[in-house]
Task: structure prediction
Amino acid sequence: MVAALRKEEVERLEKEGAWWWLAEKKRSERLDYLRKAVWKKGALGGEYAPGVKVGLERPILFTESWKENDYDPIMLRKAKALANVLDNMTIFITDHAQLVGYVGEAPHTLLVLSEGASMINEEVYNEHGVIPEPEEESLKIIAEINDYWAGNTSVDKVARLLDPEDAVKFLSGAIGWGTPSSSYGYSGKNYEYWLTGQRGFEDIIAEIDQKLAEAEEKTIGTPGPDILPLYDKIQNWEAMKLILEASIRYARRYARLARIVAENFEADPKRREELLRVAETCERVPAKPQRNLQESFQYDHFVQVLSRIEAFEGAWPSRPDYYHGPWYDKDVNIDKRLTRKEALDLVGEFMIRCYEVGLFAPRWAREGLQGITGTWVWTLGGVDKEGNDACNDLTTAFLQAARLVRVSNPTFGFRWHPQVKEEVLRECFECIRQGLGYPSMRNDPVLVANSVHWHKHPIEEARTWVHQACMSPCPTTKHGTQPMRMASATANTAKIIEYALFNGFDPVLKMQMGVESGDARKFTSYEELYEAWKKQMRWLMDILVRTVNLGRAKDPEFFGRPFLSATYERSVESGLDAVSPEGERGNAWITWFTWVENIDSLAAIKKLVFDEKKYTMAQLVNALETNWEGKEEMRLDFVKNAPKWGNDDDYVDQIMAQAFKDVAEHSWEIKDPSGNPWPVLPENVSGNIHYSNMVGALPNGRRLGDALYDGGISPGPGLDKKGPTAVLKSCSKFNHVTDGRAFLLNQRLSPTQLQGEKGYELWRSYIKTWAELGLDHVQFNVVDDKTLRAAQKEPENYQELIVRVAGYSACFVDISRKTQDNIIQRTIQGLA
Amino acid sequence: MKMKCVSCNFEAPKAKFRYLYNARIDSSGSYRQCPKCMNWLFVDELKGEAVQVVKTGDALWGKSAGVEGLAGDAIASRG
Result:
């Protein structure tokens, strides 16, 4: 009777699309508890949720040791400081949890990194609501720590080296964002080195010991230039060894805690058994290689946490089904140690432990990534090194667990390829249909070819790729893994067309920013305008890349990554900091925010000014200068009577194709510190909202203040009028391998249309067309306007409603009203 | 030409009402804020008229193009 009622209720919830409530009914009691016990760390709009506080133990313990070890070289000094944190920071185990490890001293804390950037330290001090009680005492501690680091953080040091003009322009916040240091960046993980079951930290320590012995032998041998670098390397290896040993001790503190609770306090025999298993797991990993699924997840999670205690890692490059899959298979299918349901609990908890991680982010990052703490896109599916389908039972388990835990972070990017089995594709569809906004669909053959084209990765290595952040594929191999991608290579590209129209002058900032490219009022042809646009485009790429290259080259000296280095095969082998460009093939990319405005603006000017001669350039520039005030008819003319991207219209699509060709040409001219090119990657996160008050009126019809388009190569909201296939066809008119690194496409689909078998058939057919046209990415929102409007009106009833923003998902109520409206404005495409 | 706030009757040139953002780029409807009562107003930019006070969830223009017949003007769709 109870089961029948439950079935009836489940069916009703499915019919109503009440996915959060459905998940509650379907998941286990443990998973339900863990999901609800976790603190939400993503900022609500730009503010942290009440009760979330910065953790002070990490900055106190780190700084304390740092001061004591003044004479050590940076990597060793840093390893000692981190070891002091790992040995002394408070640890905790969440009730019912089977996986442990957190970046702060309590579940509600955010990690603070004092040695990264003074400008962010000042934000910590000034941020309302996040200072732990007693506030006065905490502020005093923070002030003392900030004073100590002022001028000595890694970003402070890089900033002093920048050309002063570059520094002012870069720090204006108008043309890009981020900090040129790995203290705030995205670090790839060399999973092929440590997560394949061949190595634990003790094995890596043994490799380091061997290196140390060889180096020490040489330094007392025949003098010569080959000996000299070894003196530095010996200290680096010692630092790596020191931090690995501290990491093992850190894990064993959890083991001890679990055992103490189990043996002295836990009354429930089942939970006692679980705690003893946690203890056994933490005694095993990361010291030794994993033997089962729980150990495999725990090993991975420890490495992720330790990396984030070392640096603010804004992304979470991962491929969990590929690397943990063999242990799932062993436990569930071979040894039958776990039932599928028990395994699903572990998978769900693994996602929740990631969701829990919170790092204090500056305001621009909180506004640009509303609702989340980082772009934690896990990679599923794809092919193995030989090109065979790599999907396994764990791929399916992750897609099922996602629907049970419904977290907005991590999300998934699914590597679609022609061999993907129908049942796996259905699981992807079900996540999308149930409104998660993920997985995003990635075209594996295109992206593998892209990695080979741009960074010359051998195809076997390119096939190991994971999302390094939202979008960019990065191998997990010795020479393929990228240790440092800094968010500061992020361009607010709407400024390109703005500067082309104002001769490099920024009408919002009121200062000369770009190069002088001519007075647009006097341009007499489209070609003249386009040449000015190209000059500004090159200038923008150059200034950002100059800054980032300097930050990257100086990072081993100014910041240092002993833990990351100890998990990189090439660093353990070479004795160099992981961030050192030596031995890396590169995976650089410039994130290309607010891009399509350029194309729609160029097309509008070409048509209305130069082809039809309806307006003069002077009239247009004057209208833009006054933010279209009193020129509403003219503005609407530029919106409605000019071709718009995304409608399979060659007039504008060819402008896009040409622009990408010119950008790609310059991508090869500018080099990263390894000598590799800098392709662009159009996407937005919620930068389209962040920059909406920094970009002035444009010829596509926007005014200062309007949300910019939602990003990547997505058409302007509501401007794609010819249906989904027309959007795909427009997007297929440039080359997704050679014209850039990846290209984000947002699409909204109707939840009603996706119901049932017919809905799946429609979607599958859409994906087939998308793949055949050679697009590399597409992601979906499947929530109707009625629900979104209702959530705006009664947010308390829609706390867990998830939407795809751009490159990431977030709870709808956690993003600002303007971002919400921007999502509602997107066209709902009807599939046919 | 002056615009009148539909909430507090404050009158001033339209530009004095702080422009917030558009309802949709292809519509003449926008959000502006009354400098006196601070309410958000939905404004017809073509006519220079404040149409109504905006409350969350009440926005009549909040339909997506795919639903309402593709990019219809927000003002027109009100009727």
